[in-house]
Amino acid sequence: MITPAYVRTMAAYNEEMNRRLYEAASRLSDEERRRDRGAFWHSLHGTLNHLLWGDRAWMTRFAGWPASGVPIKESDCMIADFAALRAARVAADRDIVAWAAGVTEAWLGETLHWHSFSADRDMAMQRGFLVTHLFNHQTHHRGQAHALVTAAGQDTGDTDLFLLVPEIR
Questions:
Q1: pTM over 0.90
Q2: Most exposed residue of 11, 58, 91, 169, measured as fewest CB within 10 angstroms of its CB?
Q3: 87-94 average pLDDT score
Protein backbone atom coordinates (compact mmCIF):
# COMPACT_ATOMS: atom_id res chain seq x y z
CA MET A 1 0.00 0.00 0.00
CA ILE A 2 2.56 2.62 1.13
CA THR A 3 6.34 2.62 1.39
CA PRO A 4 8.80 3.84 3.99
CA ALA A 5 9.74 6.64 1.57
CA TYR A 6 6.11 7.79 1.54
CA VAL A 7 6.06 7.82 5.35
CA ARG A 8 9.24 9.92 5.47
CA THR A 9 7.93 12.34 2.84
CA MET A 10 4.62 12.82 4.62
CA ALA A 11 6.31 13.27 8.00
CA ALA A 12 8.52 16.00 6.53
CA TYR A 13 5.52 17.61 4.81
CA ASN A 14 3.57 17.54 8.06
CA GLU A 15 6.46 19.20 9.91
CA GLU A 16 6.85 21.94 7.30
CA MET A 17 3.13 22.68 7.02
CA ASN A 18 2.76 22.85 10.79
CA ARG A 19 5.69 25.26 10.94
CA ARG A 20 4.01 27.50 8.37
CA LEU A 21 0.60 27.23 10.01
CA TYR A 22 1.88 28.06 13.50
CA GLU A 23 3.91 30.97 12.13
CA ALA A 24 0.76 32.41 10.55
CA ALA A 25 -1.27 31.71 13.71
CA SER A 26 1.35 33.44 15.86
CA ARG A 27 0.61 36.70 14.03
CA LEU A 28 -2.96 36.59 15.41
CA SER A 29 -3.93 37.66 18.90
CA ASP A 30 -4.79 34.99 21.43
CA GLU A 31 -8.38 36.22 21.29
CA GLU A 32 -8.47 35.72 17.51
CA ARG A 33 -6.97 32.22 17.79
CA ARG A 34 -9.58 31.25 20.40
CA ARG A 35 -12.60 32.84 18.71
CA ASP A 36 -15.29 30.27 17.93
CA ARG A 37 -15.51 30.41 14.16
CA GLY A 38 -17.98 27.56 13.76
CA ALA A 39 -15.32 24.96 12.95
CA PHE A 40 -15.75 21.38 14.15
CA TRP A 41 -13.27 22.03 16.98
CA HIS A 42 -14.64 25.58 17.34
CA SER A 43 -11.56 27.77 17.07
CA LEU A 44 -8.14 27.78 15.48
CA HIS A 45 -6.61 27.04 18.89
CA GLY A 46 -9.03 24.15 19.41
CA THR A 47 -8.33 22.73 15.96
CA LEU A 48 -4.56 22.90 16.50
CA ASN A 49 -4.99 21.16 19.85
CA HIS A 50 -7.07 18.37 18.35
CA LEU A 51 -4.55 17.88 15.56
CA LEU A 52 -1.74 17.42 18.08
CA TRP A 53 -3.97 15.16 20.19
CA GLY A 54 -4.63 12.92 17.18
CA ASP A 55 -0.95 12.68 16.29
CA ARG A 56 -0.13 11.74 19.87
CA ALA A 57 -2.89 9.12 19.97
CA TRP A 58 -1.59 7.40 16.83
CA MET A 59 2.05 7.68 17.89
CA THR A 60 1.11 6.06 21.20
CA ARG A 61 0.08 3.05 19.13
CA PHE A 62 2.90 3.21 16.57
CA ALA A 63 5.89 4.19 18.69
CA GLY A 64 4.94 3.81 22.35
CA TRP A 65 4.50 7.51 23.11
CA PRO A 66 2.80 8.15 26.45
CA ALA A 67 -0.98 8.51 26.25
CA SER A 68 -2.27 12.05 26.69
CA GLY A 69 -4.94 11.06 29.19
CA VAL A 70 -7.29 13.56 27.54
CA PRO A 71 -10.49 12.18 26.01
CA ILE A 72 -11.18 13.04 22.37
CA LYS A 73 -14.16 15.25 23.29
CA GLU A 74 -11.79 17.45 25.33
CA SER A 75 -8.93 17.39 22.82
CA ASP A 76 -9.64 20.96 21.68
CA CYS A 77 -8.56 22.31 25.07
CA MET A 78 -5.66 19.92 25.79
CA ILE A 79 -3.04 22.72 26.04
CA ALA A 80 -4.30 26.18 26.99
CA ASP A 81 -1.20 28.30 26.34
CA PHE A 82 -0.38 28.92 22.65
CA ALA A 83 3.39 29.03 23.22
CA ALA A 84 3.24 25.69 25.04
CA LEU A 85 1.04 24.25 22.28
CA ARG A 86 3.49 25.42 19.63
CA ALA A 87 6.45 23.95 21.53
CA ALA A 88 4.61 20.64 21.90
CA ARG A 89 3.82 20.66 18.18
CA VAL A 90 7.48 21.27 17.25
CA ALA A 91 8.59 18.43 19.54
CA ALA A 92 5.94 16.06 18.18
CA ASP A 93 6.87 16.85 14.57
CA ARG A 94 10.56 16.28 15.30
CA ASP A 95 9.72 12.93 16.90
CA ILE A 96 7.40 11.90 14.06
CA VAL A 97 10.18 12.61 11.55
CA ALA A 98 12.61 10.54 13.65
CA TRP A 99 10.09 7.69 13.90
CA ALA A 100 9.45 7.80 10.14
CA ALA A 101 13.17 7.37 9.48
CA GLY A 102 12.98 3.91 11.04
CA VAL A 103 9.76 2.65 9.45
CA THR A 104 10.29 -0.50 7.33
CA GLU A 105 8.23 -2.34 4.73
CA ALA A 106 7.89 -5.26 7.15
CA TRP A 107 6.57 -3.02 9.95
CA LEU A 108 4.03 -1.40 7.60
CA GLY A 109 2.74 -4.85 6.62
CA GLU A 110 2.11 -6.00 10.18
CA THR A 111 -1.24 -5.84 11.93
CA LEU A 112 -1.78 -3.44 14.82
CA HIS A 113 -4.16 -4.46 17.59
CA TRP A 114 -5.53 -1.72 19.88
CA HIS A 115 -8.58 -0.57 21.77
CA SER A 116 -10.30 2.43 20.22
CA PHE A 117 -11.90 4.54 22.91
CA SER A 118 -13.73 6.65 20.33
CA ALA A 119 -15.27 3.53 18.73
CA ASP A 120 -15.40 1.74 22.12
CA ARG A 121 -14.10 -1.55 20.76
CA ASP A 122 -11.00 -3.57 20.06
CA MET A 123 -9.56 -3.05 16.59
CA ALA A 124 -7.02 -4.74 14.32
CA MET A 125 -5.77 -3.29 11.02
CA GLN A 126 -2.64 -3.22 8.88
CA ARG A 127 -0.17 -0.61 10.09
CA GLY A 128 0.36 0.79 6.59
CA PHE A 129 -3.34 1.58 6.33
CA LEU A 130 -3.32 3.22 9.76
CA VAL A 131 -0.25 5.32 8.95
CA THR A 132 -2.14 6.53 5.88
CA HIS A 133 -4.97 7.48 8.23
CA LEU A 134 -2.53 9.40 10.47
CA PHE A 135 -1.41 11.55 7.53
CA ASN A 136 -4.97 11.91 6.20
CA HIS A 137 -6.14 13.08 9.65
CA GLN A 138 -3.33 15.63 9.75
CA THR A 139 -4.16 16.96 6.30
CA HIS A 140 -7.89 17.09 7.02
CA HIS A 141 -7.64 19.11 10.23
CA ARG A 142 -4.68 21.18 9.06
CA GLY A 143 -6.86 22.16 6.08
CA GLN A 144 -9.53 23.33 8.51
CA ALA A 145 -6.94 25.27 10.49
CA HIS A 146 -5.57 26.74 7.26
CA ALA A 147 -9.05 27.96 6.32
CA LEU A 148 -9.43 29.57 9.75
CA VAL A 149 -6.05 31.31 9.65
CA THR A 150 -6.65 32.46 6.07
CA ALA A 151 -10.09 33.82 6.98
CA ALA A 152 -8.35 35.75 9.76
CA GLY A 153 -6.13 37.43 7.16
CA GLN A 154 -2.91 35.44 7.46
CA ASP A 155 -0.95 33.63 4.75
CA THR A 156 0.99 30.38 5.05
CA GLY A 157 2.50 30.39 1.59
CA ASP A 158 2.28 27.33 -0.66
CA THR A 159 0.56 24.29 0.79
CA ASP A 160 0.68 21.84 -2.11
CA LEU A 161 2.82 18.78 -1.49
CA PHE A 162 4.27 18.75 -5.01
CA LEU A 163 5.52 22.32 -4.53
CA LEU A 164 7.09 21.58 -1.15
CA VAL A 165 8.75 18.22 -1.81
CA PRO A 166 11.96 19.78 -3.19
CA GLU A 167 12.16 22.01 -0.09
CA ILE A 168 11.65 19.21 2.45
CA ARG A 169 13.86 16.48 0.99
A1: yes
A2: 169
A3: 98
